[in-house]
Amino acid sequence: MADFNTYKDAFPHAKLTHSPEGVLEVVLHTNGGTLIFNGYTHEEFADLFHQISQDPGNRVVILTGSVQRRRVRAVSCRGSTSDEPRAF
Fold it and tell me: How far are the Cα atoms of 10, 38, 40, 68, 81 from residue 54, in angstroms, in the given order?
């Protein structure tokens, strides 16, 4: 069996927080930004989810990602532009 304190800092691409009620939040990221998924992160997440499954203190897992917003310059069909931030 695993305990949250034994694995909470073991995965560099996952920020983990755990509530006393058993809610585990997993935020996947690369250096705090958008996750770059590759073979290394794939293996890391397999180990992470194994640890999560072995922890009897986890009742709910919320899996999210970290996203960096970028300013996008939008051009309409009529040629006007907008500098409003957009999320895709």
Answer: 15, 25, 22, 32, 52
